[in-house]
Amino acid sequence: MRRALKICMLTAFIIAFVLVLDVWVRAASSPLSTKFYIQLTGFQFTLQASNSKLVAIWMEGTKSTDGRFRAPPGTFWSTKYTSTLSFAGFAYKAAPSGGQWAKHGILTVPFWLLTALPVIAIGALWLTSKTRMRLRRINRGCCQHCGYDLRGSGDSTTCPECGDVIGLRARRVMAMVRTSGNDG
User: Fold this and answer.
1) φ, ψ for residue 175 (rounded to 5)?
2) What is each CA distance from 125 to 60, 116, 129, in whole angstroms?
């Protein structure tokens, strides 16, 4: 079951990686940026892919009779942003809201991060599975490298099968197994 879950997660990360690369290549090859619109009651979200970044824009508003999205009646979208943060290709801008101003903001995420996230997640999955396997072997009294059963190896500091140095934790487990076997 765990193996199937890992395979599903790995497949999802690979698909996400390929999709991000596809959007990146399409955005870099076309002079006009690609836009996706999502309209919900009272808000519009726009995803825009350009050369090296993905830009998410959200706006409070309503759909007018001519089909265009506009600020709610009696309010405006400000062109001055009160809070801005930017670092390493990231950018966040939020406009003032309340009173005569409608809520809206911009979040910019660089493609290098969207490309790196699946790679980092796959690496983390691989490392945690290797660590768990080693700990499981040590707790069973086996060599953490090759899985050889060390419970009958005596006080040796190396594995007789692969020659790997036996860690202190594995020696403690082996000693506990030997002492518990003498009690009965």
Assistant:
1) -65, -40
2) 39, 14, 6
Torsion of CA 138, 141, 143, 146, to 10 degrees: -100
| Cα–Cα separations (whole angstroms), residue 13 to 2, 110, 120 | 16, 18, 10
Contacts of 89 (CB under 8 A, 6+ apart): 52, 53, 108, 109, 110, 112, 113
Burial class for 151, CB neighbours closer than 10 Å (0-12, 13-18, 19+): middle
Any idea what DSSP says for residue 32?
Answer: S
pTM value surpassing 0.90? no
pLDDT along the chain (184 residues), means of 10: 73 75 66 64 77 79 77 76 80 79 82 79 78 78 81 76 76 68 50
Q: Please, which residues have CB within 8 angstroms of residue 79's CB and are 6 or more apart in sequence?
A: 95
**Which residue, 176, 93, 108, 98, is CA-closest to 139?**
176
Q: Report the distance separating Cα 41 and Cα 81, nearest Å.
A: 24
Region label for 67, one of left (φ > 0), alpha (ψ between -120 and 50) or beta (otherwise): left
CA atoms within 13 A on the CB side of 159: 21
Please give the structure tokens belonging to residue 28.
């870099």
